[in-house]
Specification:
Helices cover 29% and strands 23% of the residues. By secondary structure, it is of the alpha+beta class. It has a single domain, classed as Endonuclease Chain A (Endonuclease, Chain A, 2-Layer Sandwich). The protein has a 7-stranded mixed beta sheet with strand order 1-11-10-9-2-3-8, with helices on both faces. A two-stranded antiparallel ribbon has the order 4-5. The C terminus is likely disordered.
């Protein structure tokens, strides 16, 4: 039921299992060859992986949906984001200072979505411990499960859709998150933004070398 609390349990599922470095390599190869759709749940997303999604858009794969979690700290009654530089690549600023997602994205606010789930063309599904980051896919010692059985993948797709539409978990309002992202980004980078174009033209801006590549600012 749309909006209900999402839950999925599959017993005796047929899958491939991998543990070690490069755990997400098979997923990334499938993602690069996607022709129809990509659905991702990950609490950490790196700038390089956003590039991969941009490449897919350029090839005509426009059905891209993301679910992630954005945490914040509070200082002087102000919400402080840890990595506005990554979020800026997921949220576009319009000339009238309204905001829209660069990809269709759900940003959870208070419920920590820690799962990692990747669905490619509704034919392949991947789950495990690896985040949608270079570290998670290539460097860290991670686990990965691959599902190709049609019935199992359909159940995973249904779960994703339930999580995407649920009203059980609080989500960021796009205007609030967008305003925080852009104000904190330009405050942080004002010392070298003199010649930078307007925010609406900067959704593909790469991160600084010295920042972490995770949505929440944690290197995993």
């Amino acid at each position: 039921m749309p909006g209900a609390r999402p839950f999925l349990s599959i017993e005796n599922a047929n899958c491939d299992f991998y543990i070690g470095k490069n755990a997400g390599n098979k997923m990334l190869n499938k993602l690069k060859s996607a022709t129809e759709s990509v659905k991702i749940v990950a609490p950490y997303i790196s700038s390089d992986m956003i590039d991969e999604l941009n490449f897919l858009c350029a090839k005509g794969v426009n059905d891209i949906e993301l679910i992630t979690f954005v945490s914040y700290s509070t200082k002087n009654n102000q919400k402080i984001l840890s990595s506005p530089q990554v979020l800026k690549r997921l949220i576009c600023s319009n000339p009238d200072m309204t905001y829209k997602e660069h990809f269709k994205t759900i940003f959870f606010k208070t419920t920590y979505i820690h799962e990692k789930l990747y669905i490619i063309d509704k034919k392949f599904a991947f789950a495990g411990s690896f985040n949608f980051t270079n570290h998670g896919i290539y460097d860290n010692h991670e686990t990965a499960f691959t599902f190709e059985d049609r019935d199992t993948v359909e159940k995973i797709v249904s779960y994703f859709e339930g999580l995407y539409t649920t009203k059980e978990f609080e989500k960021w309002k796009l205007e609030e998150l967008g305003e925080l992202v852009y104000s904190q980004y330009y405050e942080k980078h004002s010392h070298h933004c003199v010649n930078e174009p307007s925010p609406a033209n900067n959704v593909t801006l790469a991160q600084d070398e010295n920042t972490t590549d995770e949505t929440k600012g944690e290197t995993t």
